[in-house]
Amino acid sequence: MTGTHQAARPDSGSRTVPGPGTAVDVAVVGAGLAGVGLGARLRRAGRTGFTVLERADDVGGTWRDNVYPGVACDIPSALYSYSFLPQPAWSRVFAPGAEIHRYVQDVARSEGLAPHLRLGTALTGARWHDDEAAWHLTTSRGPLIARVLVTAVGRLSEPRVPDLPGLGTFPGRVFHSARWDRDLPAGLRVGVVGTGASAVQLVPELARRAASVVVLQRTPPWVLPRGDRAYAPGEPRPDRAALAAEADRLFDARRAGSAAEAELRERAEAHLRAQVPDPALRALLTPDYAVGCKRALFSDDWYPALQQPHVTLEPSAPVSVEGSTLVAASGARYEVDVLVLATGFETTRPPFAHLVAGRGGQTLAEHWADGMTSHASTVVHGFPNLFVLDGPNAGLGHHSALEVIEAQIGYVLGALDHLDRADGPLDVSAAAEAAYTREIDRRAAETVWLRGGCRSWYVDERSGRLTLLWPGRAAEYRDRFARFDPAPFGVTDDHAAAAERVPILAADAWSSIETPQPGARPFW
């Protein structure tokens, strides 16, 4: 790299916030759990030449944005902190959202990230320049140049708003669950669109405050017992490593047609039978797809809330809004003062992909026209020195997202060490990306995510491919990708052949993986 735009080397990093046009070694986009975790590890590795761009005015990501009543983690709290910075004092088995947000803030503070944070700064564009081997970024607060670009924007950052005729003319309050109106008074008539994870948490709380609640359900969710409770003073917290190993065994229940899947379905059906005695209502709340095909939910108060006299379950989706009247597909009409859109997020087609242009000017959105692809769920051919955290096939449908995020952070740190010794940038080969994509597709074909008979946000709408989740155990992902391997980045035939030999776990090998003992009850 030559000229004034040469990206800063790790040993020349500044501890001050870069100004407009500044060159840094690493630019991280997003200050949620992934971005803050990477920042902490960069600091611990002695790398100070980085900046973290965050469009909001605080760190925290989804836990900063989602403040609706009842928001909480849906996996045990012990698994929802970094293994290198455990939180020993969660207040509950499932931590409230505000507590998780405070944890992310505390990490940013204790790890000295304040000088590296550029809050209130949105990424508006990023383009790779081959002649400089650097990324040129445009932001809402000026330009920035970086040797390495890391996106850490997450999958739950861009609310999905339904295209309902008349929605724009609704005279009352209307907002997405991730943009909660903190000043919402009690005693109103509330309509809730959606029955996903957010709705299952917030509807019981709304039922305590609203004059009436109507829940419009397109598809019922599978709901499992939650068993949440406060920890007693001085009570020992669960061992994180043991809990992680136990959670990983739950992947067996995501194998279509497995005994573990059948056992999980029986647990969900038993929970429904125990909490909903009315057979007609129970029928409306019984999904027609496999447990886990959509995101499995955990609640002990969802079903009871729906049976309260001032709460109505409408078993069809909304089709229009006429003044203050919400019209359902069934023809039913409901007068409401407030409309809450618990309608999920843009997941398989992330908006940030339109902003990032690699070699030849191709954007990530164009590269992903047939669904997101990558190698190791982290790097993409044609986008040198770009690392995508929590992106293609980086989620887990049975475990904590932090299991994969931490492995990806290790991969990035190893890549940075390699770049320090390399003559040029890192661009993973097309063969490696294609081989990894074939592996993902083969393994996904055996799971409930593709064979469970549902439509879900895990699956790309255009291609029908599983593009959000890693179709395996978290431990396997960590073993394979927590360390950087330079071989798939070569351009020789030998390197391409190595990429074709990516280890693949055959479907018939799954039966040899350790499974829970008969009669053992999963921890959630």
From TrEMBL:
| Gene Ontology MF terms in the entry | monooxygenase activity
Pfam families reported for this sequence:
FMO-like
Segment forming the signal sequence: none
EC number from the UniProt entry: 1.14.13.-
Keywords linked to the UniProt accession: FAD, Flavoprotein, Monooxygenase, Oxidoreductase
**Which InterPro entries does the annotation name?**
FAD-bind_Monooxygenase_sf, FAD/NAD-bd_sf, Flavin_mOase, Flavin_mOase-like
Q: Where is this region: Disordered?
A: 1-21
Question: PANTHER family of this UniProt entry?
Answer: FAD_NAD(P)-BINDING DOMAIN-CONTAINING PROTEIN-RELATED, L-ORNITHINE N(5)-MONOOXYGENASE-RELATED
User: Hey, which family's this protein in?
Assistant: Belongs to the FAD-binding monooxygenase family.
Listed name of the protein: Flavin-containing monooxygenase
